[in-house]
């Protein structure tokens, strides 16, 4: 029987982001907190965007994973403040993104007129250009490498 926070976190390690399946909710930094009170489990999550359409599926996947581990008394809370930031992503998650072909978020540049340096996840070149501000999801933008000519998504920093 799962009874500790660590054991619950191990169960939740099987919950992946439905939009980027190589990332777990912990890799992404969406999993904020886990509390265990007897047989009651409370999981707190924060969406990457306040209107993120994947949150309903993530919530359902959390409940399903906990039920499969024998924890039927589970509550999933959504916490919007503080807002999610790419700083919460794990280094392992950033590596997984790169290996999956998505440029991970870099440092958020707040300097006017300075273009972010985004390296191509295919060849590593920084000779890249933004093609579209939004890609398949609102948390990504579409880029192209001028060196290898391959298009790629970039997970936006915020």
Sum up the structure in keywords.
158 residues, alpha/beta, GMP Synthetase, Chain A, domain 3, four-stranded mixed beta sheet
Describe, in plain words, how this protein is organized in 3D.
There is one protein chain. With 158 residues, the chain is an alpha/beta fold. It folds into two domains: 80 residues, 2-Layer Sandwich (GMP Synthetase, Chain A, domain 3); 54 residues, no CATH class. 23% of the residues lie in helices and 23% in strands. It contains four helices and seven strands. Strands 4-7-6-5 form a four-stranded mixed sheet. Strand 6 and strand 7 form a beta hairpin. It is elongated and about 55 Å long. The protein starts with a helix and ends with a strand. The mean pLDDT is 89.
List the helices and strands and how they pair.
Blueprint: H1 5-12, H2 25-28, E1 31-37, E2 40-45, H3 55-68, E3 74-78, H4 91-100, E4 102-103, E5 128-132, E6 140-145, E7 151-155
Parallel strand pairs: 2-3, 4-7
Antiparallel strand pairs: 1-2, 5-6, 6-7
Rg calculated over all Cα atoms:
17 Å
**CATH class placement of the largest domain:** Alpha Beta
- Name the strands of the widest sheet in spatial order: 4-7-6-5
Mean pLDDT: 89
Which word captures the global form?
A: elongated
Kindly state the number of beta strands. 7
Largest sheet: 4 strands, mixed
Helix content: 10-25%
The H-and-E topology, N to C, reads as HHEEHEHEEEE
List the total number of helices: 4
CATH superfamily of the largest domain: Fe-S cluster assembly (FSCA)
Number of domain units: 2
The CATH architecture of the largest domain? 2-Layer Sandwich
């Amino acid at each position: 029987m799962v009874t500790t926070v660590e054991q619950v976190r191990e169960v939740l390690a099987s919950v992946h982001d439905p939009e980027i399946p190589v990332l777990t909710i912990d890799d992404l930094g969406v999993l904020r907190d886990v509390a265990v009170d007897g047989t009651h489990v409370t999981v707190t999550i924060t969406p990457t965007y306040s209107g993120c359409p994947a949150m309903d599926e993530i919530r359902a996947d959390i409940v399903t994973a906990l039920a499969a581990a024998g924890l039927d008394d589970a509550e999933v809370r959504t916490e919007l403040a503080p807002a999610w930031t790419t700083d919460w992503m794990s280094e392992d998650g950033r590596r997984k993104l790169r290996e999956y072909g998505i440029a991970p978020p870099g440092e958020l540049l707040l300097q006017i007129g300075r273009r972010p340096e985004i390296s191509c996840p295919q060849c590593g070149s920084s000779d890249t250009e933004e093609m579209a501000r939004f890609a398949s999801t609102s948390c990504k933008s579409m880029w192209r490498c001028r060196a290898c000519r391959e298009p790629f998504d970039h997970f936006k920093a915020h």
